[in-house]
Amino acid sequence: MKLGIGCDHGGFELKEELKRRLCAEGYEVTDQGVYDQNEVDYPDIAKITADGIRNGEYEKAILVCGTGIGMSIAANKISGIRAALCCDCFSARMAREHNDANVIALGARTTGVELAWEILRSYLNAEFLGGKHTVRVNKIMQLEKGEV
Ligand code: RB5
User: Fold this and answer.
1) 125 alpha carbon to ligand 1 midpoint, in Å?
2) CA geometry: angle at 119 spanning 22 and 43, to 5°?
């Protein structure tokens, strides 16, 4: 599976560790930065990482900042993106099964490495359930287009 990953300075160390583990498991990971701990603005990285989904480079992406909040807010402003900030494994699974989230946001200052990895695995191992959830996700996309 191809994945995108991006972070700001607050999420750099966690991003590096998650990327290392994903690659070890055979995922093809496109790292959209940042590549060091110099301060950046998280919306810039959210945009670059989301663009990889929009142009078909990968289907899903991971965004990491200090709390995951800024990244998730920014990503959700981008057309076609459904980003879920996840702090527990159940929410991560639901984000796929019910919400068809194509981005998971994680907080490096709120979530330890091992928990973040378990959350990410819960997200990646789950599949969208479709059915009534498709109707609801389509309504989200209509909201985005201003159709309702
Ligand atoms: C950066 O200091 C911090 O604001 C950012 O990583 C993130 O937590 C924003 O939501």
Assistant:
1) 27
2) 80
User: Whose CA is closest to atom 4 on ligand 1?
Assistant: 66
Q: Whose CA is nearest to atom 3 of ligand 1?
A: 66
β-strand pairing of 83-85 with 103-107: parallel
| pTM strictly above 0.90 | yes
Pairing of strands 60-65, 28-31: unpaired
pLDDT of residue 147: 84
SS3 70: helix
Locate the domains of the chain by residue range. Answer: 2-144
Average confidence (pLDDT) over 11-40: 98
In tens, the pLDDT along 65-91 reads 999 999 999 999 999 999 999 999 999
Known catalytic residue at 98:
yes
Architecture of domain 2-144: 3-Layer(aba) Sandwich (3.40)
CA of 144 to the centre of ligand 1 (A): 25
65 is catalytic: yes
Q: How confident is the model at residue 148 (pLDDT cuts 50, 70, 90)?
A: confident
